[in-house]
Model the fold of this input.
Amino acid sequence: MATTYETLTEIPEVAVDKVNFGHISAAYRRQRLHSHPRMAKTKKKAEVRTSKAKWFRQKGTGRARQGARNNPHLRGGGVVFGPIPGQRTVGLNKRVRRSALLSALRYHLENESVKVIKGGEFEDYVKTRDAYAALLDSGFSGSGLVVIRRGAPVTRALRNVAGISILAPDRLNVVNLVDAHFIIFTESALADARQHLAGTAVPAESELTQVTEPDGDEDDATEEGGAEDEQ
Done:
């Protein structure tokens, strides 16, 4: 049986009148930069392991005088101003980040590239074949974003589908929205996403591509963080 879809052209919680491409661009660059820390590393003169002895005697050879082999001007020596590892950060206030998220959603709504799957049987699919067939009924093509509630069995079934990204409703972010050609919500995920957008839909630390599931120590970490903030 074909899966039934409904095209969304309006979400009341997307409270922006027009798309702000400037905010989207700034938030997109910030998120991509934060998700790729600088890993390049070169050795300085002190880090190069070579003999500290002179190559040859100071006088009498007819060659230019040279010291240790780890000098920067010699082959195999240290690098003076080479790159070092580190996390690059770009500041962006919450108002701009929220505007970017809502503007990205507004763009998809205006282009009618947002659909919601009617019924709850889609989230119970456990086979990739069934889940992929249901996505084909949407009429979309290319890379897309499927928003599903946490813990749904279909999440496992869609992991191997090329071009499909899976997100939880509270993990909507600018990069995934911009890179996607279409967005598909389940009914339960749409309700959760609307509830999230109605609150503080600010993609702060959740913008990182590496998302870790909360564990049992989350409450303790929250209390410690609150104590540090108070200090």
User: Anything to note?
Assistant: Residues 11 and 194 are 8 Å apart (CA to CA).
